[in-house]
């Protein structure tokens, strides 16, 4: 273009592809003021106005508000500064949209009611700190005033839900279920009961020894269960004898009616499907490797068998 050439608003519209009314709006707002006017009062624009209008259009298409555009044109702020600020804003918007998408997919999967959908949305958009606070409050209440297994308490406090920026519907679903679980009065009372019982008991074997006991229990009970042995049947007796003897040796006690009564009480106090579900949900939220197969049915069988053969 010739630097001395002036263009009417109609010619400017044809060159830029913008509607006349849009150019007139920018002109009236002082964003792209006319360079001159004809004798009859029509606006005229030079090549600088054309370049200015191109920049305005680009910034507006990128979502930059008009006030910021005016600051750029007045050189109060640079284009790189505007770009950096808007990139950060877009990151937040993208994260929000991904979260909404995950919530909607989880809602569709669950067939949620409007009330449940609202709850899921509120829980999902909590910050990392707010999510940690929900779990921390649960643990604080569970251990308040008790001195029970500090190593396990530390494990609980180190395992916090960390919902990713782009969560899957399964992760959103798991977080909602976990948040509901730790705020359930019945579950909180049950966990408190388990910790109170643990605090009153002798220390359990070292971690390696305890893991060995779990493995012995799993092997013996799964074999019995797979073989179709009912926990109340006579065939379950040898399984109970073997597992009870292993626990007695680990705790330095003698197997017998008294010990089995204590072991049954301990097993019943520590076995709860919801407690295991707590860790499964955390694993899903945090993307941990696949959890090992559930042991709850194993201990439920052993508890029933121990009750029948004590």
Give your account of this protein's structure.
There is one protein chain. α6 (114-124) packs across α9 and α11 crosses α15. This protein has a 3-stranded antiparallel β-sheet with strand order 1-3-2. The chain has helices at 9-16, 20-28, 47-61, 66-73, 79-110, 114-124, 128-143, 150-158, 169-182, 185-199, 207-226, 237-250, 257-270, 273-286, 296-309; strands spanning 7-8, 36-37, 43-45. A hairpin with a 5-residue loop joins β2 and β3. The mean pLDDT is 87. The chain is built from 15 helices and 3 strands. By secondary structure, the protein is mainly alpha-helical.
Oligomer: single chain
Please state the structural category: mainly alpha
Main-sheet strand order equals 1-3-2
| SSE topology string | EHHEEHHHHHHHHHHHHH
Radius of gyration (CA) equals 34 Å
Number of strands: 3
**How big a fraction of the residues is strand?**
under 5%
What attributes does this structure have?
single chain; 310 residues; three-stranded antiparallel sheet; 15 helices
Question: What can be said about this structure in brief?
Answer:
With 310 residues, the chain is mainly alpha-helical. The protein has helices spanning 9-16, 20-28, 47-61, 66-73, 79-110, 114-124, 128-143, 150-158, 169-182, 185-199, 207-226, 237-250, 257-270, 273-286, 296-309; strands at 7-8, 36-37, 43-45.
């Amino acid at each position: 273009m010739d630097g001395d050439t002036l263009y009417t608003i109609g010619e400017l519209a044809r060159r830029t592809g913008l509607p006349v009314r849009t150019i007139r709006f920018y002109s009236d707002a002082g964003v792209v003021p006319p360079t001159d006017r004809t004798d009859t009062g029509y606006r005229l624009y030079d090549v600088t106005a054309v370049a200015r209008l191109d920049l305005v259009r680009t910034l507006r298409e990128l979502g930059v508000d008009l006030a910021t555009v005016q600051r750029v044109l007045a050189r109060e702020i640079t284009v790189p500064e505007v770009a950096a600020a808007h990139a950060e804003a877009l990151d937040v918007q993208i994260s929000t949209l991904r979260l909404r998408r995950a919530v909607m997919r989880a809602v569709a999967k669950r067939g949620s009611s409007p009330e449940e959908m609202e709850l899921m949305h509120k829980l999902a958009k909590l910050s990392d700190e707010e999510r940690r606070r929900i779990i921390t409050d649960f643990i604080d209440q569970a251990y308040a005033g008790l001195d029970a297994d500090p190593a396990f308490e530390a494990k609980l406090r180190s395992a916090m839900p960390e919902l990713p920026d782009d969560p899957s519907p399964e992760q959103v679903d798991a977080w909602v279920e976990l948040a509901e679980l730790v705020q359930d009065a019945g579950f909180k009372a049950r966990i408190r009961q388990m910790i109170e019982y643990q605090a009153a008991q002798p220390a359990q074997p070292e971690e390696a020894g305890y893991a060995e006991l779990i493995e012995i229990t799993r092997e013996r009970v799964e074999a019995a269960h797979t073989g179709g042995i009912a926990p109340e049947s006579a065939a379950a007796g040898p399984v109970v004898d073997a597992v009870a003897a292993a626990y007695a040796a680990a705790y330095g006690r003698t197997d017998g009616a008294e010990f089995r009564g204590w072991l049954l009480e301990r097993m019943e106090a520590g076995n709860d499907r919801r407690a295991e579900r707590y860790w499964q949900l955390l694993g899903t939220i945090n993307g941990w490797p696949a959890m090992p197969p559930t042991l709850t049915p194993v201990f439920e069988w052993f508890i029933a068998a121990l009750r029948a053969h004590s």
